[in-house]
User: Fold these one by one.
Assistant:
Number 1:
Amino acid sequence: MNIALLAHDNKKELMVQFCIAYCGILAGHNICATNTTGRLVAEATGLPITLYLSCNQGGNQQIGARIAYNEIDLVLFFWDSQTTDSPNSVNELARLCDQYNVPFASNVATAEVLIRGLQRGDLDWRDIVNPKK
């Protein structure tokens, strides 16, 4: 499966800790991320991660395009609900995920449910939607 990781500045460390905790599960999948988040996760976990631009430089749009082309199977976007910075970027990715039936987590609790489901095979239906080439 293709998994996208994004995190606002105040949530990057939480994303890193989450990925360390679930490194064993994530290792079996293709991971992409916005630049800073991806670099931090790759350095902490050793996971290979395809990097896109930083969020403020268009990384959200790059990942959004991959969602629209059905190239992303799961999105984990840890956003800081206390900040006024770009809630529209979160809303836009959430809208795209809804439109294309891509599971989306905006916090660690939901992300854990999705990762556990991924581990159990609950998301295998995505292989029908997005067959491996």
Number 2:
Amino acid sequence: MKITRWLYKLARLSRDAEVLSSGDPKKIARHAKNKLLGRRLFRKLW
């Protein structure tokens, strides 16, 4: 279970780095917005 959790965390960090390295402000803003919305929705479910 710990390995799977670690791999998912690594994948999310990799996606964050990919979006930031693109340098596209629209893509960065959309990614940040979606992360915040996803966290809020997840908190409401739990």
Number 3:
Amino acid sequence: MRTKQPTNGTRWYRLAMLLLMTLATAPAQQSQYDLLLKGGYVIDPRNGISGRRDVAITGGVIAAVEESIDASRAVRTVDVSELYITPGLVDLHVHVFSTTNIPDAWAGDNSLQPDVNLLPSGVTTAVDAGSSGWRNFEFFRHTVIDKPNVQTRILALINIAGLGMITDLPEQGDFNAEEVARLAAKHKDVVVGVKSAHYQLPDWKSVDEALKAGTTANIPVMVDFGFFLPERPFYELVLERLRPGDMPTHVFRGPVPWVDANGKLYDYLSQARDRGIKFDVGHGGGSFVFRSAVPAVQQGFYPDSISTDLHVGSAMGGMMDMQTTMSKFLAMGMPLDAVIEASTWNPAQQIHREELGHLTPGAVADIAGFRILEGRHRYRDASNGVLEGPQRLFCELTLRAGRIVWDWNSVVGVDYESLPPEYGVREGVDQIIPPPQ
């Protein structure tokens, strides 16, 4: 029996139906997500989001942030309904130049390896704050920043002193603004500013040379004021020396004048902020006291950026890590959304990296997931002062470029009893060899 051949009209009809079916299924295929974070409380200050949202990720970038996204459209869905979901944190002040092999140096034994000390706190971007200078920055880049196994995004401030933070002594001279500016231009993908630090002399040479380099390279300057002397008072630094966008760090250090005899904040602080000066915390091992930070927060003067000054001494002391430093500001009364803003979007803007610190579709999927622990939590400043608060931020989840790199609560795991009987044995390599009976 001969099969009836389709007529031209039938052929066109079938082709049309096939085309319609293809068009109907194409959007579903195009909207497939690699990962869906479902039901979290999203805080994204840059986009004005503070509420329940689903976050979809494809190809390492944010694909969608919506009130509800169908889980069937994702390859993997993770329930984050008990977590606060934020952009990956941006810590503006760390020390990770640990490869100099110089005993007892900030740039050496006292610096820390990045990933294990940053990702567990939700920090996906960190700025090394002047550990290296213009003489050894490229060695720092080669041995730390560009190492293929480092997952944290490491940016840098170049120290105006040639050898950076080997000890305080090299930071008293060997300034070269032209060379710092040249290196900043050559390495503009990672260099985001200039650092002046630990200066002990009564003049402004370190600060002035850093400002010269920053102006030439068109990048901000961070100043660790070092020794507080009557010849160069702190208020002159922020009112007359620094440019808009520049950042004094360690702003809650003991010698910084914050309140008058009546407990009121000095006017020069708001005047400096009006000039565009950015106040960075830089907690560190000896640069943060509650007696200054508490009245500042209570009177509505929040820091522009919350940072750690992470190094061996501060990590093992009262500072501990980024999530603890943020929790201290919660305990002082700073609203959670403001704490997140000072740890994400604000610092990203201060270093002119506006592509970071937010969850806008198309942005890199650097994400942190926090639980707020309720209870009695005690916090210590850098001079053994203690403050108690009812809440503590605790990071359970960190994503770097869409990949889960810290998973405290094992959200990516499965019940071991549901796995094959010999899971964990490398197929074709290992065998389970039982002992003789």
Number 4:
Amino acid sequence: MLLESAFAGKPFLGICLGMQWLFEGSEESSELGGAGIFPGKCRQFPASVKSPHVGWNSLAVQEGSRLLRGITQDSFVYYTHSFHAPLIAETTAASEYGLRFAGAVERDKIFGVQFHPEKSGDVGLSILKNFCEV
């Protein structure tokens, strides 16, 4: 039902695990496939960093994102996750934590954010408003 609506052109926003579900799969549950909307698999953070990644981190925002329209470069958002999505052509923002990973992705009216906009203060509220205007 969710995929049918998304493919029918209805706006879709996957938050945290919802963004990871948009990819082909994840190391977290390798026997299960994801939605396959975006290429690649989500992977666990390297052992060199504390996992889960919890707290505020900056976003390197790419120009042209509809979801992140008006969001200042290096704005901070709130993360809480142990797995990360790969950088792909549809990545519209990235963060770093032991490595560089996709913080946001978008294609047509399908959007995903690894962070939690609902916990990200005014920046998160602006992102949710942008989504409502898609």
